[in-house]
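Let us practice reading a record.
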Amino acid sequence: MTPSKTPAEILTIDDVDVRISSPDKLVFPEPGLTKLDLVRYYLSVAEGALRGAGGRPMVLKRFPKGIDAEPFFQKRVPENHPPFIDTATLHYASGTSAEEAVIRDAAGLAWVVNLGCLDLNPHPVRAEDLDHPDELRIDLDPMPGVDWKQIVDVAYVAREVLDDVGLVGWPKTSGSRGLHILVRIVPDHDYRQVRLAAESLAREVENRAPGLATARWWKEERGESVFVDFNQNAKDRTVASAYSIRPLPDARVSTPLTWEEVATIRPDQFTVLTVPGRFKDIGDPHDGIDQAAGSLDGLLALAEELGPAEKAPRGGDGSGRRKSTMPLIEVARTKTKPEALDALEKWKANHKDVVPDLHPADILVDGMRGSSSLWYRVRVNLQHVAEGRRPEQEKLIADYDPWAGKEWSGGPEK
């Protein structure tokens, strides 16, 4: 968000005053949306946004330098938070803990947007029960080269699996290239069991749609398929909730759909400019989700039937780390995505003879979670290059260390 000296504006929302600093600050240049425009957007869809994020602890994903710069992730609620912001203390798998923000009303939505948040990133638990998720999240993540029709086909297969185990799925666009399916569940299982249930669903979707969908956790093994990302159900993970604004130039929105709409819409139809009118006209397609909580028993029974998932082989160097089954080389580690893409182009320029052999899914540019922000890793899968022509692993074109200067007891979790 670019600097601005515009005086703050005070909004009275349900008898609560919320201060919006720099309200005229331009956030999305392409559609001309300011910070105040984003606040007003969230107020217009508050009922739906709170259905997805209200009452849940959330990570604050802040964009202080605008949508073209990397955000930073703030787990701990600011010390000077107003009284209408609740909190909940989460204990993370790393052994750390954080008192996180919990919003419960439209004033809370305005407050998080004022902090520079665009999308809302709640945990799948309620503040009143932090150990037992009440939401299973199915993230259909397309690999490069996958078109929208394939994502839709996989979504309907996932719905079929859910139907077979007595669960109801509620679809929404991710706000990027994929689809999310949310499933309300009775909160009587811990994170480990919920993740196992999600993994079993993903494996069954792959079994029913081989080639279209994959449950392979390692990206280089997925090919041009839709990854059913079960690990979004691991403890500490969050996803953008319903009606979240995503940091794309057109101010796209993660939008709830009916199952009838899934086959006919395109994600770019839903933006900050179009969704308020849709919400006013048809309401929230996810109205009723909270009354549709189901049991995980069917998916856990499926887990027993499928047996343990295949584990990746381990390297023989004594490190215990996974050994890839694919001929991977690493190109770069960078602080920003533009730097990553630049490094990739340099590598391609140095290896023009093999570039025509690469498939879209062979180029792996991954955003990796650092201590408080993303960093990027660039790899190339040489599976489609003849063995005798494969480039060797070379010195990294860029070698950014996201952990430099950080200290934790036991060391960083890389």
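A brief commentary: Confidence is low (pLDDT under 50) at residues 408-414.
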